[in-house]
């Protein structure tokens, strides 16, 4: 008898549309692999979500992104229901979503991170809290949502106090020049390194999910020593946070001042996208793992209680 899999998708975060695309792509691929698949569009009504999961499926495929979906909240609910689910558990999800805490752990383990401070909304909007250029990031968002780059030629963040919707504080991080690279980790191994070249110079939400805005180069054309170091940093960060299943590490490679250059860890994404434009499926394919095989592996390695 084939396993019954429920795909959680949609959700309430600013990344809802991406989650819908990811979840539906996953559901279709799993059906093609012979699984019995249902999809549940997750709302703020936890009772309704629990009701939709009764009777319990064999496995939950968590295709949610952003708040509630990758910050440990839905993971905690699934732990209480004792249903195995894909991706990372409660603690790893919460740690990865908390950017300052994750950076503290990375730095203590010798993984290089950019200089950063936590500042209030008023401090950020009233003046510079770091020497320019710097990047303003919400503390708990994904897909580059809300990210602002403040360079020498700008007066400050483009957001006003009325437009600020990410809480009282944000992280201000020293801008790292160079190239954007990313590494997918599957279980205990890195799949490869991709370089991202955007039309606008910044890999923001639109660049990530709009066809033609970004060029993915796999494998990344970087020195072998840097390539290997990027994969090692990604696996180390994955293990350090206690992640499981599939994650994606985003890094900067600065080759503007020295050779071979420096790597800087930006963040770990515990719920990487599974859209047709997403990086993890692309890296998996380059490693010889087709999409259906990838999501099947994730289902078969789902867990609960860790």
Q: What does this protein structure show overall?
A:
The protein is of the alpha+beta class and 306 residues long. It has three domains: 4-86, Rossmann fold (3-Layer(aba) Sandwich), CATH 3.40.50.20; 96-113 and 177-294, ATP-grasp fold, B domain (D-amino Acid Aminotransferase, Chain A, domain 1, 2-Layer Sandwich); 116-174. The chain is built from ten helices and twelve strands. The chain has helices at 16-32, 46-52, 73-81, 90-97, 99-108, 121-126, 205-209, 224-241, 279-286, 291-300, and strands at 4-10, 36-42, 59-62, 116-120, 134-138, 148-150, 169-174, 179-186, 189-198, 214-217, 246-254, 262-269. Residues 202-210 have low confidence and may be disordered.
Structural class: alpha+beta
The domain tally reads 3
Pattern of helices and strands = EHEHEHHHEHEEEEEHEHEEHH
Number of strands: 12
Mean pLDDT: 89
Number of helices: 10
> In the CATH hierarchy, what is the superfamily of the largest domain?
ATP-grasp fold, B domain
- Reported by name, the CATH topology of the largest domain is D-amino Acid Aminotransferase, Chain A, domain 1
Evaluate the radius of gyration: 19 Å
Largest sheet: 5 strands, antiparallel
Write the layout of secondary structure elements.
Layout: E1 4-10, H1 16-32, E2 36-42, H2 46-52, E3 59-62, H3 73-81, H4 90-97, H5 99-108, E4 116-120, H6 121-126, E5 134-138, E6 148-150, E7 169-174, E8 179-186, E9 189-198, H7 205-209, E10 214-217, H8 224-241, E11 246-254, E12 262-269, H9 279-286, H10 291-300
Parallel strand pairs: 1-2, 1-3
Antiparallel strand pairs: 4-7, 5-6, 5-7, 8-9, 8-11, 9-10, 11-12
Helix pairs in contact: 1-10
């Amino acid at each position: 008898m084939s396993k019954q899999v429920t795909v959680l998708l949609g959700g309430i975060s600013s990344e809802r549309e991406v989650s819908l695309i990811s979840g539906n792509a996953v559901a279709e691929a799993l059906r093609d692999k012979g699984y019995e698949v249902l999809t549940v569009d997750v709302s703020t009504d936890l009772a309704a979500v629990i009701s939709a999961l009764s009777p319990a499926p064999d496995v939950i495929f968590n295709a949610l992104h952003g708040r509630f979906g990758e910050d440990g909240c839905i993971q905690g609910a699934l732990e209480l229901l004792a249903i195995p689910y894909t991706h990372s558990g409660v603690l790893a999800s919460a740690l990865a979503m908390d950017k300052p805490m994750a950076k503290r752990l990375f730095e203590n383990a010798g993984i290089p991170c950019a200089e950063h401070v936590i500042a209030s909304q008023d401090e950020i909007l009233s003046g510079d809290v770091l020497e320019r250029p710097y990047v303003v990031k919400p503390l708990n968002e994904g897909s580059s949502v809300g990210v602002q780059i403040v360079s020498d030629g700008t007066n400050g963040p483009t957001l006003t106090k009325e437009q600020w919707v990410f809480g009282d504080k944000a992280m201000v991080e020293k801008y790292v020049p160079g190239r954007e690279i990313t590494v997918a980790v599957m279980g205990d191994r890195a799949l490869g390194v991709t370089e991202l070249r955007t039309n606008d110079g910044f890999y923001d939400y639109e660049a990530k999910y709009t066809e033609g805005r970004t060029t993915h180069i796999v494998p990344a054309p970087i020195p072998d020593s840097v390539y290997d170091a990027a994969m090692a940093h990604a696996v180390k960060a994955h293990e350090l946070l206690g992640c499981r299943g599939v994650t994606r590490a985003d890094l900067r490679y600065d080759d503007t001042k020295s050779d071979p250059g420096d790597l800087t860890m930006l963040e770990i994404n515990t719920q990487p996208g599974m859209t047709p434009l997403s990086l993890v499926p692309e890296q998996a394919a380059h490693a010889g793992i087709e999409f259906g095989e990838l999501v099947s592996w994730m289902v078969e390695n789902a867990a609960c209680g860790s």
